[in-house]
Design goal:
The structure is a single chain. This protein has helices at about 20-40, 45-60, 65-85, 95-110, 125-150, 155-175, 210-225, 225-235, 240-245, 250-275, 285-290, 295-300, 310-330, 335-350, 355, and strands at about 1-5, 5-10, 355-365. By secondary structure, the protein is mainly alpha-helical. It has one domain (about 45-330): Orthogonal Bundle (ABC transporter involved in vitamin B12 uptake, BtuC). A hairpin with a 2-residue loop joins β1 (about 1-5) and β2 (about 5-10). The radius of gyration is 23 Å and the shape is globular. About 45% of the residues are buried.
Length: about 375
């Protein structure tokens, strides 16, 4: 392409720095917010006022901040569940099913101890068992696609999507229409945990925030400093070369899917078992399964970096909570929050181009 005597072309990058990645991401966010501004204008709302309401509620309001952080924790855990297989070149799109099963396993422990009828359960025993059950349940759901991929080379996307539907309807059976987990009022949602199993807050946040932070550091260490992390990355970069070097595809497939499922199961326990106002599997549990897919976007934008996923999860958490708030306050049409996130994600994914290529301007020589 020639413009004003300059030849413009794209050249492939050998790599990029952390600062360059941050700059590209910031420009992408600003471009997306600019485009979403036209949605506000069409609704007759000043974009500056709309964004001021969104960000003030999400990051400054005493009610909005906990909601933002709770969603950020959930998104981070779902992102880690996606990143682990992603670094091995595999796609885990089954976070929704894994978190459903993790939540059901956790509430199954509470149910077995008589949580529906006995309000005074030993939290020191039951809560750790609920967490372990959530991790085990999610890991079991991850084991199925990992086994099928490693043993028979089945398409993990198809398998995990099918498992999502199975887990969704099993959860519906458990909490509705007389299912064993249905609330005592017959309201079509799960029973509520007694106060003895409602963990307290640390500085206004559930204790699961430490899982989200700790896992970021652990995964970063795993990918950069350990042999298994090197094998995962090698298999993701070139499966054929990794096999030649002695990496076992079956072992890697099962490992990353089980580990990812365990983290997704923990995400299910986090939102249904620790967030104030819930402490139950609600009737709209499917919304949280949909929200889990944003973890895929976070993982792709962060390019598999667990530390870089943290600010993205906070941003997405704030936009989901602030977008829903401003929708009601400014009388905007339904779905403004989804539209905003959709545009943001499309732009962020499109800007991934600039991680691989750079624009070069060269002045053409005169004839």
């Amino acid at each position: 392409m020639n413009i004003a005597g300059y030849k413009i072309k794209f050249e492939k990058k050998a790599g990029f720095s952390g600062l360059e990645a941050a700059v590209i991401s910031i420009i992408a966010v600003l471009a997306a917010l600019f485009l979403v501004g036209f949605i506000f204008l069409q609704a007759g709302v000043d974009p500056a006022k709309g964004y001021a309401e969104i960000f003030s509620y999400a990051f400054l309001n005493s009610f909005g901040v906990p909601l933002t952080l709770n969603r950020a924790i959930f998104l981070l855990l779902c992102t880690y569940a996606f990143i682990l297989p992603m670094r091995a070149g595999l796609w885990n799109v089954g976070m929704a099913g894994q978190l459903y099963v993790g939540a059901m396993a956790a509430f199954g422990v509470a149910y077995a101890f008589g949580a529906r009828t006995n309000p005074d359960l030993p939290a020191g025993i039951v809560l750790p068992l609920m967490i372990l059950a959530a991790i085990a349940g999610g890991g079991l759901m991850g084991f199925i696609p990992g086994l099928l991929k490693g043993k028979f080379n089945t398409n993990e996307i198809v398998v995990t999507m099918m498992l999502n539907f199975i887990a969704f309807w099993v959860t519906a059976h458990m909490i509705k229409d007389g299912g064993p987990f249905m609330g005592s009022g017959g309201e079509g949602e799960g029973f509520k945990l007694p106060e003895s199993l409602q963990p307290g807050l640390f500085l206004g946040m559930p204790f699961t925030i430490w899982f989200a932070i700790g896992l970021a550091a652990l995964l970063q260490f795993l990918f950069t400093k350990t042999r298994i992390g090197y094998e995962i990355r090698s298999f993701g970069a070139s499966p054929a070369a990794a096999r030649y070097a002695g990496v076992d595809p079956f072992r890697i497939s099962v490992l990353v899917f089980v580990a990812g499922g365990m983290i997704a199961g923990l995400a299910g326990y986090h939102y249904f078992g620790t967030v104030p106002g819930l402490f139950k599997i609600p009737k709209n549990y499917g919304d949280f399964g949909d929200l889990a897919f944003y973890g895929m976007i976070c993982g792709l934008i962060a390019r598999g970096n667990p530390l870089a996923s943290i600010p993205l999860a906070i941003l997405f958490g704030g936009l989901t909570s602030g977008g829903r708030f401003v929708q009601g306050k400014l009388q905007l049409g339904f779905g403004i929050d989804y539209a905003m996130l959709g545009v943001l994600m499309i732009i962020l994914v499109a800007f991934q181009f600039f991680f691989r290529y750079k624009i070069v301007f060269k002045k053409e020589k005169e004839a």
